Structure prediction request, 138 residues.
Amino acid sequence: MTPVSEIMTRDLFTVSMDTPLNEVSNVFKKTKVRHLPVVQGDILKGIVSHTDILRMSFGSHFGTEERDADEAIFEMLSLEQIMAGNPVTVEANEPIKNVAEMLTEREFHAMPVLENGKLAGIVTTTDIIKFLLQNQDS
Prediction:
């Protein structure tokens, strides 16, 4: 019954509600993260995935004209319009097994983790797979 706090990522990259989409896109390009919690102050407001940004973008597949189109799209939309608002969260003491079941049932790939009502980390399907591989009986 290992708690999810044992495997979650605590050193988070986050974006704020007013972060322009081109900056959000740049965070994904510069880091290896695939999900970013969206915060307003210290309050979790949503989550945005790299896939959410890619749905709004096509410049990475083509040339300069398409990158210009991406900029125009990013300027027309706000982060709030494409993020998943009020995301499902888990508490840090939730057993990993329960979190794995939730991720499977809801077909999410990441969930914010709260401690005492505050954002403390994020857990992904990759975190769970790594945990299972490390703890499998050979």
In short: The mean pLDDT is 89. The domain at 4-134 is CATH 3.10.580.10 (CBS-domain). The chain has one domain: 4-134. The beta strands are 15-16, 35-40, 43-49, 84-85, 90-91, 110-115, 118-124.
